[in-house]
Specification:
mainly alpha
Length: about 140
């Protein structure tokens, strides 16, 4: 079983992997500076603990997306989990925008990238019996 649109599949997963890696490293190495870059008010020091744990998950999922881009079939559970994460991320972002907890400028790409990622992954998802677009022509 191979992706129905392999270039879109690999490109999307690698871009997600890079976003995850950048966020993971930023929140691991400089949590308060990263939060400040997002326009968030200074938080108590204990939030660095949460940022560090969040960073570990960013890095792990970045690694999983990179592996899935190279070899889809054995890594589909990573992608399924990322689809769930992206959906939750987007819904949480909308909730906190609606409540006025954060601004559109603060959430930046979180306001639309999850939807783009979900749509591209859904469209290029490996299907049984599907031939890659390049081979079908």
């Amino acid at each position: 079983m191979s992706p129905s649109h392999p270039l879109v599949w690999r490109g999307t997963l690698r871009f997600i992997a890079l976003v995850q890696a950048v966020l993971g490293l930023a929140f691991l190495l400089a949590p308060q500076a990263t939060a400040e870059q997002l326009g968030l008010v200074p938080a108590p020091g204990w939030t660095d603990w949460l940022f560090g744990m969040m960073a570990a998950r960013f890095l792990a999922f970045g690694w999983g997306m990179w592996r899935a881009a190279a070899s889809p079939q054995p890594h589909l559970p990573w992608v399924q989990a990322m689809l769930g994460i992206q959906a939750i991320d987007w819904l949480v972002t909308l909730l906190h925008l609606w409540r006025g907890d954060v601004t559109l400028a603060q959430v930046s790409t979180a306001s639309f990238l999850p939807v783009v990622f979900i749509a591209l992954l859904w469209w290029s998802w490996p299907r049984t019996g599907a031939q890659p677009a390049a081979q079908a022509a």
